[in-house]
Automatic annotation (TrEMBL):
Protein name stated in the entry: Cytochrome c oxidase assembly protein COX14
GO terms (BP aspect): mitochondrial respiratory chain complex IV assembly
First-listed, main subcellular location of the protein, grouped into a coarse class: mitochondrion
UniProt-annotated location(s): Mitochondrion membrane
GO cellular component, one term: mitochondrial membrane
InterPro entries given in the database record: COX14
Topological category with respect to the lipid bilayer: Single-pass membrane protein
Source taxonomy: Eukaryota, Metazoa, Chordata, Craniata, Vertebrata
Keywords: Membrane, Mitochondrion, Transmembrane, Transmembrane helix
């Protein structure tokens, strides 16, 4: 990806030395471009070319990865919730059974 500036140089963005899961970018000087007289449009938008609105393969892969990761995170949270509810009911049932056993012992004594 090359960015042009108001100077005579452009900068190329390449992935940095960190692992791919960490977003890092390094600016490297690109080959000098002829006359750079690019000016932003007055309304603040860049020119759009046909196909610019289409996501690239990398963007689609990133979207898929983030979606999958989010769904796995939600499933993990939901699984933890179900596990804690089951443990709560187990301990409630156990305490009620103990209480019933104690009541049965006291009723035999009387």
């Amino acid at each position: 990806m090359t960015f042009r500036t108001n100077s005579a140089f452009a900068f190329t963005v390449v992935p940095g030395p960190l692992p791919s899961l960490v977003w890092s970018w390094v600016l490297l000087p690109a080959a000098p471009v002829g006359r750079v007289d690019w000016r932003p449009r007055l309304d603040g938008r860049e020119r759009q070319h046909p196909g610019d609105s289409m996501p690239t393969a990398k963007q689609l892969a990133d979207i898929g990865y983030k979606t999958f990761s989010t769904s796995m995170m939600l499933l993990t949270v939901y699984g933890g919730y179900l596990c804690s509810v089951r443990a709560y009911h187990y301990f409630q049932r156990r305490s009620s059974q103990r209480q019933a056993a104690e009541e049965q012992k006291t009723s035999r004594v009387l």
